[in-house]
Amino acid sequence: QGQLVQSGAEVKKPGASVKVSCKASGYTFVAYTITWVRQAPGQGLEWMGWITVYNGNTNYAQNFQDRVTMTTDTSTSTAYMELRSLRFDDTAIYYCTREALVRASDVWGQGTMVTVSS
Amino acid sequence: SYVLTQPPSVSVAPGKTARITCGGNNIGNTNVHWYQQKPGQAPLLVIYLDRDRPSGISERFSGSKSGNTATLTINRVEAGDEADYYCQGWDSPSDRVFGGGTKLTVL
């Protein structure tokens, strides 16, 4: 069925970068797209972008285009999301998801809490 | 940018039917997915492509669409259905968008 396991919580200072990992298992990694979604404390879901694993194509939400990079390592079935120039309002839980052909996220990671604090 | 509009909250008594709407001016031309999120948990896909249920999701959950409004219906609501519900669509073939979320309270 598939599983996504994310890296642990991070605390960063404003202006720093964070790189969150997402390790896939139980399915053919290259056959799906990985998306990233974040959720600020007490807020709703915000789509950040996707990466097509088999060819590395990416599409980022306009809000993040200048600060985010999504990559994958097919040798370890791991996806990465790097967010640069962190601000206080980047404090959130970051989720990776597996997106099926119907563009629905049918598998979610457990989430990674990123706290931006001085 | 494309906006999907959900009511912030819906309340329903146990055993009754809950309906959560999702409005957007392009919904009629695309598909909608629905996610359930319980406190402290990652979201869970409960409806995809407007009305299809993933395996393992209760038959009490159903989806429909009319015009520019999609609706998630939960029949015979149980206490365990209390959660936040999000609709998801896309603005273009490339961009995804989530509704603001609806908190379902079981009275």
Write the layout of secondary structure elements.
The complex is a heterodimer of chains A (118) and B (107).
Chain A: E1 3-6, E2 10-12, E3 18-25, E4 33-39, E5 45-52, E6 58-60, E7 68-73, E8 78-83, E9 92-99, E10 105-108, E11 112-116
Parallel strand pairs in A: 2-11
Antiparallel strand pairs in A: 1-3, 3-8, 4-5, 4-9, 5-6, 7-8, 9-10, 9-11
Chain B: E1 9-12, E2 18-23, E3 33-37, E4 44-47, E5 61-66, E6 69-74, E7 83-90, E8 96-98, E9 102-106
Explain how this protein is built.
The complex is a heterodimer of chains A (118) and B (107). The radius of gyration of chain A is 13 Å and the shape is globular. In chain A, 40% of the residues are buried. Chain A is built from no helices and eleven strands. In chain A, the strands form two sheets. In chain A, strands 2, 4, 5, 6, 9, 10 and 11 form a seven-stranded mixed beta sheet that branches. A four-stranded antiparallel beta sheet of chain A has the order 1-3-8-7, with no helix packed on it. Chain A has strands at residues 3-6, 10-12, 18-25, 33-39, 45-52, 58-60, 68-73, 78-83, 92-99, 105-108, 112-116. Chain A is mostly beta strands and 118 residues long. Chain B has 107 residues and is an all-beta fold. Helix content of chain B is 0%, strand content 44%. In chain B, strands 1, 3, 4, 7, 8 and 9 form a six-stranded mixed beta sheet that branches. A three-stranded antiparallel beta sheet of chain B has the order 2-6-5, with no helix packed on it. Chain B contains no helices and nine strands. The mean pLDDT of chain B is 95. Chain A binds chain B through residues 35, 37, 44-47, 50, 59, 61-62, 95, 100, 102-106, 108-111, and chain B through 1, 31, 33, 35, 37, 42-45, 48-49, 54, 84, 86, 88, 90, 94-101.
